[in-house]
Amino acid sequence: xxxxxxxxxxxxxxxxxxxxxxxxxxxxxxxxxxxxxxxxxxxxxxxxxxxxxxxxxxxxxxxxxxxxxxxxxxxxxxxxxxxxxxxxxxxxxxxxxxxxxxxxxxxxxxxxxxxxxxxxxxxxxxxxxxxxxxxxxxxxxxxxxxxxxxxxxxxxxxxxxxxxxxxxxxxxxxxxxxxxxxxxxxxxxxxxxxxxxxxxxxxxxxxxxxxxxxxxxxxxxxxxxxxxxxxxxxxxxxxxxxxxxxxxxxxxxxxxxxxxxxxxxxxxxxxxxxxx
Amino acid sequence: xxxxxxxxxxxxxxxxxxxxxxxxxxxxxxxxxxxxxxxxxxxxxxxxxxxxxxxxxxxxxxxxxxxxxxxxxxxxxxxxxxxxxxxxxxxxxxxxxxxxxxxxxxxxxxxxxxxxxxxxxxxxxxxxxxxxxxxxxxxxxxxxxxxxxxxxxxxxxxxxxxxxxxxxxxxxxxxxxxxxxxxxxxxxxxxxxxxxxxxxxxxxxxxxxxxxxxxxxxxxxxxxxxxxxxxxxxxxxxxxxxxxxxxxxxxxxxxxxxxxxxxxxxxxxxxxxxxxxxxxxxxxxxxxxxxxxxxxxxxxxxxxxxxxxx
Amino acid sequence: xxxxxxxxxxxxxxxxxxxxxxxxxxxxxxxxxxxxxxxxxxxxxxxxxxxxxxxxxxxxxxxxxxxxxxxxxxxxxxxxxxxxxxxxxxxxxxxxxxxxxxxxxxxxxxxxxxxxxxxxxxxxxxxxxxxxxxxxxxxxxxxxxxxxxxxxxxxxxxxxxxxxxxxxxxxxxxxxxxxxxxxxxxxxxxxxxxxxxxxxxxxxxxxxxxxxxxxxxxxxxxxxxxxxxxxxxxxxxxxxxxxxxxxxxxxxxxxxxxxxxxxxxxxxxxxxxxxxxxxxxxxxxxxxxxxxxxxxxxxxxxxxxxxxxxxxxxxxxxxxxxxxxxxxxxxxxxxxxxxxxxxxxxxxxxxxxxxxxxxx
Lengths: 276, 310, 360
Hints:
- The complex is a heterotrimer of chains A (about 280), B (about 300) and C (about 350).
- Chain A has about 280 residues and is mainly α.
- Helices cover about 80% and strands about 0% of the residues of chain A.
- Chain A contains 14 helices and no strands.
- Chain A has helices at about 5-35, 40-45, 60-65, 70-100, 105-115, 120-130, 140-165, 165-175, 180-190, 190-210, 210-215, 225-235, 240-260, 260-275.
- The longest helix of chain A has about 35 residues, at about 5-35.
- Chain A is flat, with a radius of gyration of 24 Å.
- Helices cover about 70% and strands about 0% of the residues of chain B.
- Chain B has 14 helices and two strands.
- In chain B, a hairpin with a 7-residue loop joins strand 1 (about 55) and strand 2 (about 65).
- Chain C has about 350 residues and is an alpha+beta fold.
- Chain C has two domains: about 5-235, P-loop containing nucleotide triphosphate hydrolases (Rossmann fold, 3-Layer(aba) Sandwich); about 240-350, CATH 2.40.50.140.
- Chain C is about 25% helix and about 35% strand.
- Chain C contains eight helices and 19 strands.
- In chain C, the strands form four sheets. Chain C has a six-stranded mixed sheet, with helices on both faces. Chain C has a five-stranded antiparallel sheet with strand order 13-12-11-14-19.
- Chains A and B meet through helix 1, helix 4, helix 5, helix 6 and helix 7 of A and helix 1, helix 2, helix 4, helix 5 and helix 6 of B.
- Chain C: Keywords: ATP-binding, Nucleotide-binding, Transport.
- Chain C: Belongs to the ABC transporter superfamily.
């Protein structure tokens, strides 16, 4: 076989390879987009239509009109925001402390927390919130989302602080810094990339959470995943608006994923490879 | 929290006899998180264990019944059936992403153009909101209007009933789970591939090994620890799978796709049988821990670089 | 500036004793080097002076004040770490002024001190850069600058040159010595490199397995090593050790050759087993000397190093340590396989007790 031909074949093979790799994800989300932009008649057509003649932009406007969607968006924002910020507040120092005390065994608690099904936290905490009279507010969801966010943050931060050299902190100690100054002025600034990773993953997993919401949310305190699910079960299912709503819910996460894929990959593999 | 406490005792032993520690204590950094972890993670564990020994329905008197809930579980056919579904679902949801994810990692480990962007697209399924993608899959599974049956008809197969028939529902759900989680396996294996030394490959090439031989005798043994990590994580996640199953089938048709997690949900939050639900949660929890321990043990044996690779 | 007094200091991790009772007196302004093979406890001792390791027994005093329980920040010391430990997120100027800023020193004073230190080390143009933009030698200088700015009582150096290439190491050696001559700050310096120790120190402390083998001025250790360890550790190439026994007015090697002692026979030692130590540069050609076969000739230009195998010693792994090294300044036409006769200079030879290793 001649060299140029061989090169061409290699390139073609590579292109096919690339296409095969990303097509399951790409085609799915394209189809999702297509569903969300079609009128009912096009969504019911056989054979299915990928690109319709006219776009049903009203699918998007309806979800914001009828369904308190903005309220649910706001709820999601509050729950995810509060749970993530609080997790960073307690989890970053904790990751630092555990890494510095070399208390690796305490990380087992975090591992087991990750292995525990969300539902088994729900039963006792549900009763607790009921007893405290918190049901009907956003507090139960904010608190229970800590089950997701705190372990993520601690886990990632332990790994991060372990890789920052102890020598730097000893230098700061000799330079006259107290332990709080060492944390704030040396350890924390160096760990900034780790905090970004922890923040992103915490936001994504909290935003996506569904199981806590279906039990704890009332009509006014639904988060977006619960709201979208309810559209499916309680209304005459109409595919266009439903797909549009689904896309709106997951769009922030998808954008974040593509924009911060490097951090996400770093965070997930660090946790995974160390986590075994 | 005995684990935390014991590790401090070890640290403290090093400074026996000194009145004052030169090194700062790091406890103040940990305490706030400790409070949170005890409150939202440890307390629920303990409380669940306690509730599982009670006859406890919402709105009724509570009564201590010892192990009665557990005895009831052993004879609960619906539970045993759910256990079977869970094991089948988990096994398939581990194997399929493992094979596909490893293949994808090998592809990603070459010099692809726009590798970062492609990887970003590739991992989208696992980061996307599960409920949202489950809704779209539901539409795609539709026997008459779904795009999947249309695609199959183009190659002369079908139409299938997908999630609407007991014989195909679990396989269909595994398809979704595989689509969603293959990227995670890919990332873990890709991390493993990146850590491999290059010399053995060069040496094998000089020795005349084919690409397949290099994969079979070099790559595969060397990434085995990473594959085991992927198996462990995948097993745990598949056992716990909830969002997709609940959104698409709610365990149906009938109870054909009801897993332990879904059954637990029904018992606790549909029938409000808190005591029995707690017992299911405890058994489920033990199941997950046992499986993890077995897999961890296997992984320890598979680690060729257990010295540093952990 | 200050004196440092180390009294019977011990360090143990659980049952393992790393430092087994060490006492050193360091005068005000002195440059003291702790040297020894890795694992001898020299770095641990330095870190105990810094306050980074707790002291299991004994006392460390700076300026007559016992500092065992004083945290590092209150000891008024500055330390240069092996990997420099520059704060990667701060500019060079901020790195150097960090300690002063922690103490809320006035801005003008900080600026003046940083400028002075930068002047001493030639760091002026680099002050606005970040550590990652600097070369190894420059980072090393910044680490020193950070110490100078503090104007501390004691400088501590923990193997500061081991990450530099050979050429830069020689250059920095000179710079550190110059800096000390200029600032006259009490300095404790740890290294495993005996050449660094010989060239820089006022006083060398040779450590081995957690104890002090000998303390002394560099040439003192070279000329009068207290035991075989110091004799073998100081000097490169290492001293030759020839086992045998003392007899009459000389020394008889194991294979029966006679080596001169120059009348320095220790009293009541006739027939006593001993080890004859002679430095490679203290051999000369002599007709009556030890007959040995040339194994390897290694010319370096300024001198020639030769490995010799005394006749009667078999070739092979086992007897490698009985081979002798000879360093001569003049060029030689000797080739491997030739037999030469060499004799040690008896005035510069040493005798050691083979059991205790101590000098006789």
